[in-house]
Design a protein that fits this description.
With 214 residues, the chain is mostly helical. It is 60% helix and 6% strand.
Length: 214
Amino acid sequence: MKYVYIAHKGAFAVMDIYNEKEYAVIISQRLRQARRQAGLTQARAAKAAGLSQSALSEIESAKRSVSLVCAIQLAKAYDIQLSELLGEQPINRETEQTPGILTDAVSLLSQLLKAGGSKELEFTCSQSLCVTVYLVFRLLYKQNRHNSGALFSLSYEKAFEIGKGFLPAAVYEEITLCLKRCPIDTDALELPVEKNPEIVSFVSEAERILKALG
């Protein structure tokens, strides 16, 4: 078996070269995530790393590999450890705030919609959010093999075929990659449907919307 070694502070990270393409995609995702969390545009980040914006864009889309020197410069610009970019530890800045941010965002959106005074707009946005959450829910639900597919009237493939406009490919891929690289307790994702009437109701409504669209 052949390996490549990534040097960092006297240590070496080992990577199977047959997974090099997948690893490059993961690194590109982490670079984009770190830049966004740092609040930097591609132009500013590229300048800090001595790159052109187009070059950084290619790196973030896994069309171009990133050198160790460039990675070190980007890590400095994003104020994180290089090990976070290389996948040795999670990029966890402000992760404790994420649930609050999500709740606040939905609350703010709800307030704006009500203030707008258009029931039709409020209804349309609510349906769109319902379908988006449903698709993410299915991604997570699928991670536990004990979860019953009987909860759904649409197959996984059909649901995403119809709903791909609600959950763009880039978002789907980012969540999927995160599920692959992040340690998660899949046992905790087991949901006994009979004890969750709210879930049944939510799934039923989301699939009603999807069927109408499909």
